[in-house]
Amino acid sequence: MNQRNLKSSVSVITQILIYTLLFLLAASTLLPYILMISLSFMAEFEMYQMPPRFIPTIMRWSNYIEMWQAQPWGRYIFNTLFATVAVLVGQLLLVAMGGYALARMKFPGRDFMFKLFIVFMMLPGVVTLIPGFIILHSLGWVDTFMALIVPSLGNIWGLFLMRQYMLSLPSSLEDAGRIDGANRWQIFWKLILPLCKPVLATVGTFTFLSMWRSFFWPLIVTRSKEMRVIEVGVAMFSSQYITNIPAQLAAATLSSIPMILVYLFAQKWIVQGIKMTAGYDR
Amino acid sequence: MKNTIFKGKCSRILIVALLILALSTVAFGKTKLRVTTWAGAEETALDESIIAEFMRLNPDYEVIYEAVTSDNYYQKILTDIGAGTPPDVILLDAEMIPKFFEGNFLTDLAPFLSRLAREGYSGSNVYEYFPVLIDIARVDRKIYSIPKDTSPMGIFFNKKMFDEMEVPYPPEEGWTIEQFVETSKKLTKDLDGDGQNDTWGFAFPSWVGIVVPLLWAGGGEVFSPDFSHTSGYLNSEVNVKTYQTYLDLLKQGFAPTPQQASALGGNSALFYTGKVGMILTGRWFNVSIKGQIKKGLDLQVGIASLPFVDINKKDTVSYVSGWSVPSNVQDKRGAVMLAAFLSSDYAQRKRCLEGSLAISANQAVAHLQGENDPLDAAFISMLDYARVPVGSQTKFYRPKFEDLWAEAFDKINVGGESLKAALDWMVAEMDEAIEKGEN
Q1: What's the gap in Å between the CA of A262 and the closest CA on chain B?
Q2: Where would a tag sit more exposed on chain A, N or C end, judged by fewer CB atoms within 10 A?
Q3: Whose CA is closest to B115, among B321, B332, B345, B325?
Q4: Which residues of B touch A240 (CB under 8 A)?
C-alpha cells in the first residue's frame, strides 16, 4: 500500500515536473511574440527601461495609426492575399498532378526526372536569382502579379510529398476505376485526389505560410509600391541608419495575425507535414 | 475609277491611322525613368513629392520610384544591373563608389552637369554643394555622384546629465582628448552605492565608421596616401596611443563594455535612458532623438566635436550618399537631369528643412538649416574640416577593412590581445589583400 502511495506520489511529481518544463518551454517560445505585441504599443525609449516592462504604461495606439498611414497597407494585404491564394490553388493542382504522374504512371525517364527534381531541391535559391530575373524581365513580368505567382507554382517538396503519399495508396483502387470505365483523368480526379486530402492540406498550409512570409523574391521582382507585399512593407520601416521600431513591430504584429489563424485551424496538417517529411507517418 | 476610290479610301485610312499613332505618341510617349533608393517609409513620402515636382516641371518624363530596404539594397540593384535592366538613377553610399567605378558601372556626370548648369538646371551646379562632398565622388576630373545629403560624425551629449552631475559642457570650439577623458570620468558614477556603475561617461566606439575619424582626430592615418598599404599607418604609434586611451577608459569602467551595452539595448538605448552621458555617432542620430522627444522623452541634447589631439588640427569625417547614373542606361541626359533634381534646391529644402533628415549638401540650404536648429549648426560647422571617407577613395575599405577591423576588435575585446598585436595582425592581412587585389 505504502509502495503504491509512493509510486503515485512519484508519478504526480514527475507529471508536475514535466508540465512545468513544458510550460517553461512554451513560455520561452511565446515570450518573444508577446514582447513584440507589447513593444508595439511603446515609444522606442520606453522599450529600454530597466527593469523592462511587459505591459506598456501608456498604450500608444498611435504607433498603429502611424504604421497604417505610412504605407498603403490595404494594397499590400490585397497583393499578398491574391498572390498567396493564386499560388495555393495553382500549386496544389500542379503538385497533385505531378505527384500522380511520378507515382502511378509509367513513362520513360520517370525515375530520372524524379531524381532530377530532388537534385534541384538542393540548389540554393541565390543560384537561380539572376537567371530567374532575366527570364521574368524578358517576359515583361517584372512588377506584375505574374512575377509573384508563376515562379512559385512549382514546389518540389510538395511534389515529393504527393508522390510518396500516392505510392502508399493501393493500386486496386485504380483497377476498380478502370473496370468501371473511368479514364486516367477521372481516376486521378475522382478516386485518387479525394484520398489525398490530408497531404494536400499539409502542402497547402506550408505553401500559405511560406507565401505569406516571402520577402526576398517579391523585393527583387517588384518595383512599385502598388505591387509590394506585406513582408516588404514591414521591412520598409528600417532605413540605413534609423529604424522605426515601434511602427515595424506594429506592422509585424499585423502581418502575423493571418499566420496565427492558419496555424489554429491547420495545426493538425502542420504536424502531419513535419511527420511526413521526417518519413515515419506513411 | 474603282482604283481611284480604293486609293482614296486607303489614304484616308492611312491618315486616320497616322493621326491615331501621333495622338497616342502624345498621350503615351513619356520617357520612363526609374530611380532606386533605400529610403524608409517616412523618407519615401518626401521623395515622392520631390519626384512629383520633377514630373510637373518635365512633363515629358514619367518617373518610377522604387524604395528598397537598406539591407538588401545593393543586392537588388546589382541584380538589376547584372540582368541588363539598371535603374536610371541609383542612390550610392560614398563607400560604394570605388567598387562601382571599378566595375565600370557608373556614368561620368561631369559633362552632363556642366551642360545642364549652363542651361540653369536646378541641382546641376556643383559649386552649390559643399566642396568636400563633391570631392567624395570625384575621380580625377570625373564626377560619379551628386551628393544627396550628409552626416558628419560628432558627439551627442545629454545636457540634463551634465547639469545634474555639475560637469561643464564640452567647449563649442572643440576639445582635446584629455578634456574628453576628464569629462568621461566625472560622468561615471555608482549612484546606489552597490559597487557597480549606474552611469558612464560615454558609449564605447567600436564601429569602424567612428574609429577611423577618432584615429584621424588623434593625428593618425589608416592608409598610406596612395592607399597602397596600411603598415606604418594603421598600426602607427600615434594610432595605438589614441585608441588605447579609449580602451583604457573602457577597462577602467568609464564606458560600459560592448557586452553590457548590448544587454542594455545598445548604445542608443543607453543614451536615451541617461545611462551614458555621451555617444559618438553621426548626425543621423538626431532624427531618432527628435522622434523620441516628440513622443515624450525627457532629454536635452548638445553637440560636441570629436576629441582632438590638438585643437588646431581638427578632424572628422562626413558620410554622404549621392545620386549616380549607371553606365548602361538609355537616356543619360534624362537620368542626369533627374539625379540633379533629386539634389536640387527644391529637394534639399524638402528633405532637410521640412523633413530634417540630414544635413543638406547644398551650402545655402544648410545655412538655413543651421539658423533653424543649433544642433544642425554644430554639425554644419564640422564640414569646414571634415574629410572624405576612406571608403570613397579605395575599394579595399568596404568590406575588407571593415570586416578585418571587426575581427581585430574581437581579438582585443574577447580574446584579450593587445591593441598593438591586433593592429599588426590587421595590417598584415590588409596589405596582403591589397597586394593580391582581393577585397
Answers
A1: 28
A2: N
A3: B332
A4: 38, 70, 93, 284, 321
**Among candidates A45, A237, A244 on the partner chain, residue whose Cβ is nearest the Cβ of B272:** A45
Q: What pLDDT digit, counting tens, does each position of B79-105 carry?
A: 888 888 899 999 999 999 998 998 899
Q: Is B86 exposed, middle or buried (0-12, 13-18, 19+ CB in 10 A)?
A: buried
Compute CA distances B86 → B40, B76, B89, B126, B322, whole Å.
Answer: 21, 10, 8, 25, 17
Q: How far apart are CA A149 and CA B291, in angstroms?
A: 39
Per the CB < 8 Å rule, is B72 touching A216?
yes
Q: What is the pTM for the complete model shown?
A: 0.84
Instruction: Give me the interface pTM, i.e. the ipTM.
Output: 0.78
Degrees, nearest 5: CA angle A132-A136-A137: 115
Tell which of A214, A222, A223, A234 to mutate to test the B interface (max B CBs under 10 Å): A223
Walk me through the domains of chain B, giving residue ranges and CATH numbers. Answer: 25-150+320-390 (3.40.190.10), 152-317+391-436 (3.40.190.10)
Kindly report the CATH number assigned to the domain that includes residue A87: 1.10.3720.10
**Contact at CB, B40 and A238, closer than 8 angstroms:** yes
Specify the long-range contacts of residues A189-198, CB closer than 8 Å, at least 24 apart. A192/A100, A192/A104, A192/A166, A193/A96, A195/A169, A196/A96, A196/A99, A196/A162, A196/A165, A196/A166, A198/A165, A198/A269, A198/A272
Which three cell numbers, joined as nine digits, stand for A120?
A: 534541384
Residues 6+ apart with CB under 8 A from B263: none
Residues A6 and A66 in one domain: no
* Phi, psi (deg, nearest 5) at residue B139: -125, 115
Residues of A whose CB is below 8 A from B45? 70
Strand partners, A148: none
Shortest CA gap A86–chain B (Å): 25
| Total residues belonging to chain A | 282
**Where does B190-307 have alpha helices with state H?**
208-217, 237-251, 258-263, 267-272, 285-294
| Nearest-by-CA chain A residue for B78 | A130
Judge contact between B220 and B238, C-beta under 8 A. yes
| Host domain of residue A6 | 2-30
Model confidence over A118-138: pLDDT tens digits? 898 888 877 888 889 999 999
Q: Contact B83/A244, CB-based, under 8 Å?
A: no
- Domains held by chain A: number: 2
| In a shared domain, residues A26 and A118 | no
Q: How many CB atoms lie within 10 A of CB B27?
A: 8
Inspect the interface and report whether the beta carbons of A45 and B295 lie closer than 8 Å.
yes
Q: In this model, does residue A170 exceed pLDDT 50?
A: yes
Spatial distance between the Cα atoms of B145 and B162, rounded to a whole number of angstroms: 41
Whether the CB of B296 is below 8 Å from some CB of chain A: the reply is yes
B43 touches chain A (CB under 8 A): yes
The residue-averaged pLDDT of B238-244 equals: 98
Average pLDDT for chain B: 92
